[in-house]
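Example 3.2
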Amino acid sequence: MKFHTILIAVIALLPFSCKKVTRETISPAKTKESTTPISSSVTICSGNIWQYDGPFYGDHKALNILDVVDARPIIYNNKAYVFDADKDLIRIFDGTDWSHKQSQIPFDNPVGMGFTLGNMGYLVPAFKNDVWQYNFSNNTWSKKADFPGPVREGESSGVFTIGNKGYIAGGAEGGSSFGNFFSDTWEYDQAQNKWTKKAAFSFFGQTDVVGFSIGNKGYLVNGHLSWGNIDIYSNNLQEYDPVTNSWTLKADFPGASRAGSAVFVIDGSAYVGGGNGDPSAGELRRYTDYYKYTVRTNSWEKIPNIPLSGEDCITYYGFSINSKGYFVYRYYDVINNPGKYMYRYLPLHCGTLPVSN
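Structure, written as tokens:
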């Protein structure tokens, strides 16, 4: 396990665009007097920018922005679903607008862990072992096999899916004392409604890890553990192969070691950033830098920072829909800035246009 000293990097956000002009070689048979147009092309790039996207959890004209629910969203059919168990309400974001519908949510605690397999959502309430299946098609619920690992805090574990199986790894035991951090990995088989313990991802337990999947592999990045008054933060990226049931260290996350990052996946690349780190000054350092991970080359590259002050921003999570990424955060000054908010990330896209001279 490799951990690094916490550093903070603040890089100014700049919208990115580029333009490159290329010309085909003129045939030697043509002379200066030739009037034949010279074929050209222009490559135009746009994106690689963040845009403020307003409040999270719904249109404030229709939904009370003060009703902030600490529940991890799950994604289905390019929509983000947030389950408000207190109000038996499901809030749905489609990338443009928020809507909501009533549902007889069968648990009281906020969603701590959740994932989607096919047209079913699987939700584990925070500080519970209950597992509930939600049918997106008919808005119904079914009780499934209990999560067999120790009860853990909400949002402290890494979650990802591979094929028709869901995975939960790491986390911290809710309300527990020194030492109760986990490095376990649990696989849920949808077809058999069965949980199986898999290879541990670390010798030391870690909490506030974040998970994602690309292709037929799962990944965990960042996280932290505590020994008494000592907090240790990680910049590890680890890859899980379900065929060999093994974890492999990949290229280290290039930013400062941290926990509680926000991740989203667009077009087979993962984007990781935000989170918090070394509390050496008495308060956690909060980050707004972001990085893109490419599986094919096992490499990272810097993208623009979220245009927020790190000291003002508390990271919650990230998700992607419609080929856009979303970063969900809360202001540290919750009295004057209640609720949660979002920034939308537009990835870099380039296209070539033909032109004639």
